[in-house]
Write a structure and sequence with these properties.
The protein has three helices and eight strands. The protein is α+β, with helices and mostly antiparallel strands. It has a single domain, classed as Electron Transport, Fmn-binding Protein, Chain A (Pnp Oxidase, Chain A), CATH 2.30.110.10. A six-stranded antiparallel barrel has the order 2-3-4-7-6-5. A hairpin with a 2-residue loop joins strand 2 and strand 3.
């Protein structure tokens, strides 16, 4: 009987990474503020190749045309298996009142008011990994 002994990260294609991203609803928005990385929980939906993200951050903090990173994962503990996906690209704040109202109804948020921002991120790069376990004596 083979026993899991080793963990590996296996690259996934861009298509599979987008599929994994589309199948999830929560992640983390990463942006730079005062030369430091800031990470905020967020919810998202992938529509028409664009990632709409709702995060508890002030719009002025991320800027009107910022380069942002969004990270999503699903890791099963204690096995350590699952996946992780990172999307990076330019983003802008959704300012149209009707569009914003739609996403506020469909994406849950953590805060309301000035710290509740909707962003449209156009991924220029999407990468992902599957986290797997190899079996003792198996091919690597």
């Amino acid at each position: 009987m083979s026993v899991p002994t080793d963990r590996r990260m296996l690259d996934v294609s861009g298509t599979e990474a987008l599929w994994l991203l589309e199948g999830s609803t929560q992640g983390r928005l990463v942006y730079i503020q005062r030369e430091q990385a800031v990470v905020r929980p967020a919810t998202h939906v992938l529509e028409y190749g664009r990632l709409v993200v709702r995060a508890p951050v002030q719009a002025a903090t991320v800027g009107t045309r910022a380069l942002l990173t969004y990270q999503v994962d699903e890791i099963r503990h204690p096995a350590g298996t699952g996946w992780t996906v990172t999307a990076h690209g330019p983003a802008d704040v959704i300012t149209d009142p009707d569009e914003a109202a739609h996403y506020r109804r469909t994406l849950p948020g953590w805060s309301h008011g000035p710290h509740d921002t909707l962003l449209r991120l156009r991924p220029q790069s999407v990468s992902g990994f599957r986290l797997a376990r190899t079996l003792d004596g198996g091919a690597r």
